[in-house]
């Protein structure tokens, strides 16, 4: 991270403006903090780069500006990856689950089966060359997937070379407790920081509560609890968004979900929907082992 201007490149020419720019940054931070404390929905409208520090919500969940997220690092979450096409364009997220295997969403890979895909590991900043970009050599798409919201939205990618980064274990069928309402789950991605907003340059993370099936059902009539779970606050404000699909939903140190869909992003009463990994882990593990 280069948030401290003194450690950033170009510090010599920037020194003269440092005092003035620091004052502006301090004022901006104070303003954002005040707005942030006002309510969760404010996080949607402030959008931004994700560099803003967060305030604590009324329920004590830290948040700032995914939507409502804060900067996080692949140094701490080494299994969070993003997917690009041959031009380097980031279009989805994913999770490293074995040295040569990445779990992502079927809707990330099924629409363009001939597209060359690369998985980028160990790179927080999409504009940097940190970590590595590895070509995907095989793509498996869940056979039951037909469209978002219909069938199991999961895909397993095989990498052309193995990577040394730590992997994340999948939740299993016995991990039902992790899907209990109120479980604090983490979401990660480089997607949009507001509905219709632009993608984040940096990896962002946020915490959202897992919701009861009746709540998930109320805002998506097609909700099938054997295939999906949902997460989000009543008031919205914190959510995955476009470009985060395929990325991880994590609880208890395990991959419990895969970002799949939502109605807009971070809207009140509109949770995010995640492919349910636990109940479907046998099918996914079989592909990871293949
Ligand atoms: N389908 C989106 C994607 O391809 C993910 C949307 C998630 N939306 C939400 N509100 N949780 O990136």
UniProtKB/TrEMBL annotation:
Keywords assigned: Disulfide bond, Hydrolase, Membrane, Protease, Serine protease, Transmembrane, Transmembrane helix
CDD domains registered for this protein in UniProt: Tryp_SPc
One GO MF term: serine-type endopeptidase activity
TM annotation in the entry: 12-37
Pfam families, per database record: Trypsin (PF00089)
The keyword Transmembrane helix is assigned to this record: yes
Domain Peptidase S1: 66-289
PROSITE patterns for this protein: TRYPSIN_DOM (PS50240), TRYPSIN_HIS (PS00134), TRYPSIN_SER (PS00135)
Family indicated by similarity: Belongs to the peptidase S1 family.
Protein name: Secreted trypsin-like serine protease
């Amino acid at each position: 991270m280069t948030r401290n201007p003194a450690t950033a490149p170009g510090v010599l020419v920037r020194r003269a403006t440092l005092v003035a720019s620091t004052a502006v940054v301090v004022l901006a931070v104070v303003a954002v903090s005040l707005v942030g404390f006002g309510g969760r929905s404010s996080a949607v409208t402030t959008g931004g780069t994700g560099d803003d520090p967060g305030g604590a919500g009324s329920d004590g969940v830290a948040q700032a500006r995914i939507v409502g997220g804060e900067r996080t690092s692949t140094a701490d979450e080494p299994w969070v990856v993003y997917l690009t096409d041959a031009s380097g364009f980031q279009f989805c997220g994913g999770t490293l689950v074995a040295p040569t295997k990445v779990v992502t969403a079927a809707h990330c890979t099924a629409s363009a089966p001939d597209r060359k895909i690369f998985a980028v590991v160990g790179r927080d900043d999409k504009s940097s060359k940190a970590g590595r970009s590895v070509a995907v050599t095989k793509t498996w798409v869940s056979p039951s997937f037909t469209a978002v919201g219909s069938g199991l939205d999961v895909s397993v990618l095989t990498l052309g070379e193995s990577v040394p980064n730590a992997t994340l274990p999948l939740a299993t069928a016995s991990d039902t407790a992790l899907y209990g309402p109120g479980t604090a789950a983490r979401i990660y991605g480089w997607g949009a920081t507001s509905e219709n907003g632009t993608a984040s340059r940096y990896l962002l993370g946020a915490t959202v509560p897992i919701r009861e099936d009746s709540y998930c059902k109320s805002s998506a009539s097609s909700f099938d609890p054997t295939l999906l779970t949902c997460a989000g606050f009543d008031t919205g404000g914190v959510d995955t968004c476009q470009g985060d699909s395929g990325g991880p939903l994590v609880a208890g140190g395990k991959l419990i979900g895969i970002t799949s869909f939502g109605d807009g992003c971070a809207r009140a009463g509109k949770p995010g929907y995640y492919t349910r990994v636990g109940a479907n882990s046998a099918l996914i593990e079989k592909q990871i082992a293949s």
